[in-house]
Amino acid sequence: MRPDRFLKLRRVLDRRQPDLTVLMERVNKTHNFSAILRNCDAAGVLEAHAVPPDRGLDLHSDTSGGTAKWIRVHRHPDGPSAIRFLQGEGFQVVAAHPGPRAVDFRKVDFTRPTALLMGAELYGVSPEALKLCDVTAVIPMMGMVRSLNVSVAAALLLYEAMRQREIRGMYDPPSRLPADRYAETLFEWAHPELASRCRLRGLPYPKLGEEGQIVGSLEGLRRPDDSVPGDSASADSVPQEPLPTEAADPQGKSRTESHPEGERR
Fold first, then answer.
1. Residue 215 gets which letter from DSSP?
2. In 3D, which of 207, 187, 191, 200 has the Cα closest to residue 242?
């Protein structure tokens, strides 16, 4: 791990927002799902949530820009259970959906813990999910079409949230993540393969030095083909792989991890 690379990881993680997320309800076009994740990364979202369409959920590598490594996606069986889970975690759920009760998205208070609900292309948010939302927001349209592309709408909402939060100083250091979660996420970003091995073997993550190097012994974590001298190693001496929560399958697609309602890993 190069010191400058590790410093960049820390700068990005310092700005991650643990109380801003996006819930995608059956967004079924791969490029839209991937583009929304890219928007999330740009706006400092720590994690995203998704209700996958019937055919499954994949990432489009050209559109996502590699963001699968930086945004963990939690999968839910349906919209209502996902909304109840997020509300139980203290989030207000803001549905991007036109209707008689919808307010201009710029009038929503996004400095509160917020989950943005984005519906499927063509059909929007499901009626069952809409009934449970705390707020419905609309993006004003001046033309003939009724709505924007779902990834474009998500970008507008996220950047309004970012604008409000920047004014409030919510992106300023120190990080708003709890210290243990910060350290865990930083290790997973800096040393994804070692993090995977630790989880598989039930071992705690080794500590990191000031420049991202592994401090201490790697006993129990080496593979037979690792050429790691001594009792410590850097990321440069261990092959890298995607995080297991976004692990690549043999076809080069990405998988998201699944959580029953109310469960968080």
1. E
2. 191
Sign of CA dihedral 141, 145, 146, 148: negative
The tokens 């009792």 sit on which residue?
231
Going by C-alpha positions, the residue among 23, 10, 4, 1 that lies closest to residue 82 is 23
Q: What are phi and psi of 28, to 5 degrees?
A: -105, -5
* Domain edges within the chain: 16-168
Assign domain 16-168 to its CATH superfamily. SPOUT methyltransferase, trefoil knot domain (3.40.1280.10)
Q: 3-state class of 34 per DSSP?
A: helix
pLDDT tens-digit profile, the chain (265 residues)? 899 999 999 999 999 999 999 999 999 999 999 999 999 999 999 999 999 998 777 665 555 556 778 999 999 999 999 999 999 999 999 999 998 999 999 999 999 999 999 999 888 999 999 999 999 999 999 999 988 999 999 999 999 999 999 999 999 999 999 999 999 999 999 999 999 999 999 999 999 999 999 997 787 787 666 554 333 333 333 333 333 333 333 333 444 455 544 444 3
